Amino acid sequence: MHRLIFGHSFVELAAVILLLGLAFYFLNKKKASVHGNTEDADTGTSGSLTTPKKTNSGGSSSSPTENCYEVFLSFRGPDTRKGFTDHLYNGLLDAGIDVFRDDDELPQGENIRPELLAAITNSKILIPILSVNYGTSSWCLDELVNIIDCKNNNGQIVLPIFYKVKPADVGHQIGSFGEAFHKRESRLLERRFDPTILKKWKQALLEVSTLKGYKAAGYEAKLVNSVVRKVLSELKKKFELVVSENLVGIDSHVKNVLEFVENKSHATLFVGIHGMGGIGKTTLAKAIYNKLSNQFEHRSFIADIRESWKRNGIHYLQNQLIYDILKRENEVRNDDEGTKFISSKFKDKRVLILLDDVDNIIQLKCLVGNRDWFSSGSRIIITTINERILEEVGVDYTYDHKEMDKDQSLLLFSKHAFRKDSPPRELKDLTCEVVSKTGGLPLSLVVLGSLLCGKKLAFWRGTMEKLIKVPPKEVREKLRISYEALDYE
């Protein structure tokens, strides 16, 4: 009996020892695997373009697969992660650009490959930052192969940055870049690395070296600004305000204003556009804003200030401006705090600001105050019914937006009433009669044209009779605003 008990205890003891031994074995195996993966990251011994793994030593970027980014940064971490790449990344973010970078959004330990490929494929602009040790990372080189493939197959934009290396050294693997690359190549060949992958890497390096890019050979802040401006130029559509496609006669107005603005490129300018309600001031201002937007990292469009001020107060508008320029939410709690903040924090910012439908000088004093609130070269565009506000604030250029002439009125009306540039023959006389009642007011032409589109002749005649007595509701509202802005006399 005692022997049985002893035997049973011995078996239990042996089982415990065996389990401890297995646990120790697998723990050591896991450590060895992690060590092997880290070494593989440095040496690229996987020999594959399809299965790299994420480590802290690499220089790749990351994001969720469902997201599309505007810029993908490929870089060698130890060379530039905490320096130039970080400055460029934040410069792009400050300009409102969505950027893909590693260890920023991908959860720790997640397999990077699907996200990496998706980010490269879905990004509009691909920026490889080619530094001395870029060619020592298989992941960087794999990224570069995919970047060049996307350029050739999908037409994506590639903007290489040669960071303290020469393009020729990258393309032909010579100089300091070539020395680091060939050391790596020798180690790979000793391990019977797939030569076809080496060939793809070298071809990608050659091709990227021939592309027009940037050389880091001076002040890095200046280079970052140049790259950001270039990216903004390529992404211009993102920052453009919505403007109707059926515009008529606006090009000459835009040209007149821009001629003045472009001749004063280094000065901070206040540009005022005034005219009666419904005349098209906002549309003109938006078109000018869109023409200038790619020249500015910091932009803000504040719409319908007259109504927004009534509903929410001036500090609400100040917070909107602060968020647009600095990306800081609900920064101020009252008007005085907002004025003090804007006047002190924007001095080094070259801004493009459009303030739409201003009807009180206080709004301008609290939002854009003086020219010295902003960096030189800033542009402040103001639209208003009241020309006196522009005189009081002392704008540099005032543009009086006039009514449309007869031909432009007919063209704009036809675009909305008939979806083409001229009326059908049987409706031409009636169309001219309707257009003559609008007084060249774009809003009237758009509202009436849309109202009459597809309607029968009897409806047209009935509308004409009503129009003689009173204009449409939307037009009346705009005219009421213009009327109320007039002095009593």
Automatic annotation (TrEMBL):
Statement: the UniProt record of this protein carries the keyword GTP-binding: no
SUPFAM superfamilies in the cross-refs: P-loop containing nucleoside triphosphate hydrolases, Toll/Interleukin receptor TIR domain
Gene3D superfamilies: Helical domain of apoptotic protease-activating factors, P-loop containing nucleotide triphosphate hydrolases, Toll/interleukin-1 receptor homology (TIR) domain
Bias (Polar residues) ranges: 43-65
Annotated PROSITE patterns: TIR
One Pfam family recorded for the sequence: TIR
Domain TIR: 67-235
Keywords attached to this entry: Membrane, Transmembrane, Transmembrane helix
TM helices/strands, residue ranges: 6-27
Sequence segments annotated as region (Disordered): 35-65
InterPro entries (alphabetical): Apaf_helical (IPR042197), Disease_R_plants (IPR044974), NB-ARC (IPR002182), P-loop_NTPase (IPR027417), TIR_dom (IPR000157), Toll_tir_struct_dom_sf (IPR035897)
Family matches, as PANTHER family: DISEASE RESISTANCE PROTEIN (TIR-NBS CLASS)-RELATED, LEUCINE-RICH REPEAT-CONTAINING PROTEIN
Protein name: Disease resistance protein RPV1-like isoform X2
UniProt source species: Rhodamnia argentea
Gene: LOC115733209
